[in-house]
């Protein structure tokens, strides 16, 4: 967890609620009010050459560096979803463009800017890379501590009063991307000690892309598929049963697994059942394959277990069920399998491998599911954005209509006033006319009188 | 006379080279043979053996389907420009200047204002920015590539043209600084400073405003437009007779460009 200073804009006054930014963990060293050694090493020009100890020159010194840096980061944070380009920044900064470009590249590479920009126009390489690290992404992200509830309440009040538009809760906003949840997955990956994370990543990508169904798996790894055939069938049956049993809604399932008191394995098992059978099968396949590659004994064990499976299908069924019941009934199940297979000495090893494979499968499936949820959330976000924009447009249209009405009313009033004005003038004229007519004869008479 | 010493950590004079990371010389070829014209601009590594030039010229003529009569003048042009570059080599050039407010000194710590004003095929691009000629780690090609990426310029010829334009200006400044050094050493007369003195003074004062202890390196918002690239795309029919690359460096009059730009605006 990061100290809040790292993730919030320190320049903001303390009284107002601070703006929260989620920044990559790799850039957690950053401080607004200091210059870290990383910066000194990456850009020695500003700090008096290679050592980074001096004060530089008039155009290159720590003060100038901080001005550049703070401006660029501030500029990016004006709209974190947009990719900030060097050409855009450079017009506002006086200085050697070569040096500025180096500085910009450093900030970009170290995740101080453009870390959550989505509108990257022409960077396919970067996008690919992003897809490649899907499994690790949660671990690499740093989440700021949850601000006090009052902060949210304030925000909600303000938003609700203004537009009267309430956003439906996102599927995974609360439960999947909450730090606690994510840490579970992260630590699970570590504890499993698979050592072949790359393969997992590959697998997860493939499965979620929908490119990899069971057929493909079989073709690509015909050797190992034979080995795990029994396992696949088992898993499929199992999950099919479960889903046929209850068909719980996604949210319910998620909430059931949110509970932090249940064990990790139980949560994994629940997540496992939540995905489709072919994802599960692919995960299982990859798990056995990786295990086999890691340890030739494991492969042997699986082959043996397959033979056994053919002989007595139900015995390995127990083992497979461990996938879903590892948590509380762990010891109990172990005992069962023990009694089932006491006759063979090597069985213990086999069981261990199978449990390992099952755990790996569960983790893989969980990861695949996480990615699916992320995708889903993205779609939901897009939808929401679209609806927001639509409502805003409607609002604007209403306003325009309103103004048009106002204009019509104004016009009417204007004509009415004009009429009144005309009639007033007429009245005045007639009254003046009357006055004159009344007065002139009188004057004439006066004149006549005085003349006479 | 107020004198501020700058750039203490840098050597004040180095032997002549392009003030960039790669010592590449900008070459501009403009030859006309039998009514056919060939204009081109590229960079050349002066360390390459001269035998490369002839093969390059032959190859270029072949690729562009030019008659073989183009090869000798092309060769001559490139060799002449390389010879000029080499004539400067071995001499010292000054990269660092002291900022004297009362004297006309063009650059602060070697930072000069470069201007780009180019028309490449159908793209017109204008830009200006500060370039530190004392920064021997600079890379015009990389800069031009970033610019084109950021602005989504699709024409692949624009980037190299910008880079060559930058190199030409740097080359000019570097060769001038060699002559300044030469004259300072011989002490015959006061060295003429860079191109225009009044402008240079303003430049230096401007820079002091930015980098002085009370200044800020962040430009005022209303000045931003001066330092951002402006791009115009001209439609084909307005591009004029020669569809070939036309490069206008800042030294050339901008009239033509303005006319072209106006024409494009009127058509809109």
Descriptive account of the structure:
The complex is a heterodimer of chains A (about 450) and B (about 270). Helix content of chain A is about 70%, strand content about 0%. Chain A has 18 helices and no strands. Chain A is elongated. Chain A starts with a helix and ends with a helix. Residues about 1-15, about 120-260 and about 315-340 of chain A have low confidence and may be disordered. With about 270 residues, chain B is α+β, with helices and mostly antiparallel strands. Chain B has one domain (about 10-265). Chain B contains 6 helices and 9 strands. In chain B, the strands form 4 sheets. Chain B has a 3-stranded antiparallel β-sheet with strand order 7-8-9, sandwiched between helices. Chain B has a two-stranded antiparallel sheet with strand order 1-6. In chain B, helix 3 (about 140-150) packs antiparallel against helix 4. The longest helix of chain B is centred in the middle third of the chain and has 29 residues, at about 160-185. Chain B is flat, with a radius of gyration of 20 Å. The termini of chain B are far apart. The interface of A and B includes residues 56, 94 and 98 of A. Chain A: It comes from Eleusine coracana subsp. coracana. Chain A: This is SWIRM domain-containing protein. Chain A: Pfam families: SWIRM, SWIRM-assoc_1. Chain A: One of its GO terms (cellular component) is nucleus.
